[in-house]
Specification:
single chain, 366 residues, six-stranded mixed beta sheet, 10 helices
């Protein structure tokens, strides 16, 4: 499938969506949806917002991008010039996006955000259009997973006691950005902070014996989530036992994630595995992950989840037991569930689960 074919397939999904809901147009304002619709193009300027520098409008007969003159030249030259979108723009100081939109479409509009005024926010329904990944998306995703895993492995092998969490995070971010991967999430904890916080943003605290590295790496719009742990010196027995347990929980979640499986059933199995491994209450302390793709999580799984795993849908489970964690990004394909961020040059734990052999990253002991 060529990029042009990929885009046409997605446009047809959107037009089916419009037809089913009797809408005149759909307006996509987020960087995630811009990347999805354009086959991996990027319209972000600021990383602290979900919205991009352009909007994509799809109607029954056309597809358009609207922006201002600041962004138009780069988008035309580097992102969408050869793609089947009609580019509309005006000067930044008098660009009336609503006027440009009104020239394109009249009638009921769905949006994935707060713009345009009067449109119906259907962000959740519009996100569903992305869940079934196409072949080119899976190929790009594999590369993002590999680059993210490689950055984590290289960082884990290079950090040293005495480095601050900020320095460790800076090293990981450098490796990601040098590979063209944006760290959409970057969490670093050392020593006691691993045991206190499930979402540890980096601080000036120096590393003594143990470090946890967590990131969500984004390139071409798709996001690979993964976590790794490093320990200096002999691994305490209790920590080794906890990590073995969390790897078994993660392996069960991965094995159960198959097209057609109820997400609530997968989550229920995760809860059972916490109990079977002797850590029954730990799942209450942090979410267990869920569906991913063009967002770190499109939704978090739970016992009440109504969703079913779709073919070629991405997931990232992240079970944790105080002091340790296991996380990678997977795609549930028809014939296999592939770990696309599989650890590279890293010690592994081999888990046997219902006749399957699943490898999970061990704690790197240095």
């Amino acid at each position: 499938m060529t990029r042009q074919q990929e885009i046409q397939s997605k446009l047809q999904r959107v037009r089916d969506f419009l037809d089913q809901r009797q809408l005149a147009a759909a307006v996509f304002t987020t960087t995630a949806n811009f990347a999805w619709l354009t086959g991996g193009s990027d319209d972000h300027v600021a990383t602290a917002t979900d919205t991009g520098a352009a909007e994509v409008i799809v109607t029954a007969t056309g597809q358009y991008i609207i922006t201002n003159n600041i962004e138009a030249v780069r988008l035309e030259d580097e992102e969408v010039g050869e793609l089947p979108f009609e580019l509309h723009y005006a000067n930044w100081h008098d660009a009336d996006r609503k006027l440009m939109l009104d020239e394109i479409v009249t009638g009921p509009i769905a949006t994935d955000g707060t713009w345009p005024p009067g449109a119906t926010n259907m962000a959740a329904d519009m996100a569903r259009l992305r869940w079934n990944l196409l072949e080119p998306e899976i190929e790009r995703y594999r590369e993002v997973g590999r680059l993210t895993s490689q950055a984590l492995s290289e960082t884990g092998c290079q950090i040293e006691p005495g480095m601050s969490e900020h320095q460790i995070g800076g090293l990981l971010a450098d490796k990601l950005l040098s590979a063209g991967v944006t760290p959409a999430v970057l969490l670093i904890a050392t020593d006691e902070r691993i045991y206190k916080y499930r979402h540890p943003i980096p601080t000036d605290k120096p590393l003594q014996r143990q470090a946890m590295l967590v990131t969500c790496g984004r390139k071409w719009g798709v996001i690979a989530s993964a976590s790794r742990l490093v320990h200096f010196g002999e691994l305490p027995t209790e920590l080794a036992e906890k990590h073995a347990a969390v790897c078994h929980i993660d392996a069960a979640a991965i094995a159960e994630t198959r097209p057609g499986a109820a997400v609530s059933d997968i989550f229920g199995r995760i809860v059972q595995m916490y109990e079977e491994t002797g850590y029954a209450d730990e799942w209450h302390l942090h979410h267990q992950g869920g569906a991913g793709g063009y967002a770190p999580r499109d939704y978090l799984a739970g016992l009440e989840s109504a969703e079913v795993v779709e073919e070629n849908q991405a997931f990232a489970w992240n079970p944790s037991i105080t002091g340790t964690k296991s996380e990678d990004t997977i795609i549930a394909m028809a014939d296999q569930t592939e770990i696309i961020s599989a650890a590279l040059n890293w010690p592994m734990v081999t888990v046997q689960y219902q006749g399957q052999q699943i490898n999970r990253p061990d704690i790197l002991v240095r």
